Amino acid sequence: MFHVALYEPEIPPNTGNIIRLCANTGSTLHLIHPLGFKLEDRQLRRAGLDYHDLANLHQHQTLSQFRAALKNQRLFACSTRGVVDYTSPEYRPDDMLLFGPESRGLPQPLLDEIGAEQTIRIPMRPGNRSLNLSNAVAIVLYEAWRQQGFS
After folding, report:
1. pLDDT tens-digit readout, 5-35
2. Residue 74 vs residues 61, 100, 149: alpha-carbon distances, Å
């Protein structure tokens, strides 16, 4: 199915929710270090309920290692600085959906490297800063899955 990547996630309950989301959608979750918590964190485990064993989870020590491991898949970066609405791409199985840390998002040099056409955004009302990370992942992932007929 799809690959969800969290670059330097900081808040354990968000990652726990995303673990459960990936387990329920059949998506693979990639955590790119450093993490702002330990995987044994009580809040992370509580948010993920009993889905940890059902999730396909991979860890990467660096962004470069992550990209090398998945070099043949298309990459979409999700950012409030994107100009392409998240509903515009025609998603394909094995696409990578990359999300940044809760407090700062993806670094601009990375977004520049990925390119504007591969940097998607979720529309919000003017003046608002961001959505919760687990909500943003759910919105984009379910749109990609919807385009595949939820198969």
Report:
1. 999 999 998 999 999 999 999 999 999 999 9
2. 21, 17, 19
